[in-house]
Amino acid sequence: MSSRAFQRIYTRLESITKATVTLRAEGVSNDELATVAGRLAQVVKIRRGAVTLQVFAGTEGIPTDAEVIFFGEPPALNVSTDLAGRFFNAYGDPIDGGPAVEGERRFIGGPSVNPYKRKMPSELIPTGIAGIDLNNTLVTGQKIPFFADPDQPYNQVMAQVALRADVDKIILGGMGLSNDDYLYFRHEFENAGALHKIISFVNTTDQPPVERLLIPDMALTAAEYFAVDRNEKVLVLLTDMTLYADALSIVSNRMDQIPSKDSMPGSLYSDLAKIYEKAVQLPTGGSITIIAVTTLNDGDITHAIPDNTGYITEGQLFLRHDTDTGKVIIDPFRSLSRLKQHVQGKKTREDHSQVMNASVRLYADAQNAKTKLENGFDLSDYDLRCLDYAKDYAVQLLSIDVNIPITEMLDTAWKLFAKYFSKAETGIKQAMIDKYWPSERMD
Fold first, then answer.
1. Which residues pair with 328 in a beta bridge?
2. pLDDT bucket at 413, cuts 50 / 70 / 90
3. What secondary structure does DSSP assign to 114-179, as a single string?
4. What band does 27 get if pLDDT is binned at 50, 70 and 90?
């Protein structure tokens, strides 16, 4: 932001609505930031010298002689390698006690990469979490949400992904984080010695909700610098997109716009797509991969936020509390990665897709056996073995606290097959069985 000496200051408002103020001003640009009586605002309309500003926190109590200060530019971020290891607020100002970042000034919220300059995603991102790597393998340039109930440890999962993912830079966009969650992320990153490759933009619950709207664009502007300018593999973690959408709804209501489904603004789809479409695999090797948490309201997958998200993204990762083991797992039935076939068996071992399919099918047989048991039917020997297998599979491969390489995941699955089933019961091709079936049974 420019110094106060060069800022344009006005003190006469022509009109005030619930969410906007209008005044006469010169030399103002669209999307330019300003303060109105100390409240953050942004230019939304310019017509014949009349400038309309949207006041994010609402206009209640603002007098007609309120001081309006224009910043001289839309929201922007200084980009350089000095961003790494730092924590910033929604405006790109440091919140970690460190100095302001010097670098090239870039306006946030620009267009996504031209499709002509994109490449088909084909590089693996291992996370160490078997529920992801084994069943729903991530690919560079992919956009995928975590669907989770509000009481599930989704921020802990995001931190785990950040610390385990094999990428050059991790960019965290935290929207509506509790102070505990913010300190948790900071503590985890510092303790792991990984701060050098992590950049965080944070809005906490004690800050205005509308500031959350700046967080994704700040994070993605930084991501584009490292991916496009420096050819790095960048993973962007956004949490929580439901709180982002709630902030959109607040602003929409203040602007007296007619709400759409579930009280969300009619622009929700395009607002979300503008963020997710920044995911890209570039021919030069740089990439932006986006994983975003969407918390569910009472598990409602049909709510406008997850519903629109599902149309835009390439699958979803579904967190679930497994009552049989007490573990939080990545649900193999409701999770999906639509790009996994680009890396499974190509960038991973040849048996990957067959092991994945067999392990999930046998887990499904266990769920059928569980239903039979609950309804009072007798269980076969195969049913009983499936139930025992399911518990081991959940603990050793689906649980979010498993942290092993993909090859070890595959070997673990083979050991579970050999422990509970005959070779024929797995349904895996004979050539793969001959090559990978364990020589010793697992007790």
1. 321
2. very high
3. PGGG------EE--S-HHHHTTS-EETT-EEEEEE-TTS-HHHHHHHHHHH---SEEEEEEEEE-H
4. confident
Residue 94 DSSP class: B
Distance CA 174, CA 202 (A): 5
Query: Could you tell me the domains of the chain?
Result: 4-70 (2.40.30.20), 76-341 (3.40.50.12240), 352-436 (no CATH)
Closest CA to 324 of 386, 394, 379, 383: 394
Q: Is 395 exposed, middle or buried (0-12, 13-18, 19+ CB in 10 A)?
A: middle
The answer to whether the beta carbons of residues 142 and 165 sit under 8 Å apart is no
Cβ neighbour number for residue 401 with a 10 Å cutoff = 13
Strand-pairing partners, residue 55, are 41
Do 34 and 13 form a contact (C-beta atoms < 8 A)? no
144 close to 138: Cβ distance less than 8 angstroms? yes
The encoded tokens of residue 222 equal: 């930084």
- Whether 252 has a pLDDT exceeding 80, the answer reads no
Cα separation, 271 vs 266, whole angstroms:
9
Higher pLDDT, 395 or 252: 395
Cα–Cα distance between 30 and 52 in angstroms, integer? 10
pLDDT category, 255, cuts 50, 70, 90?
low
Predicted TM-score of the model (pTM): 0.89
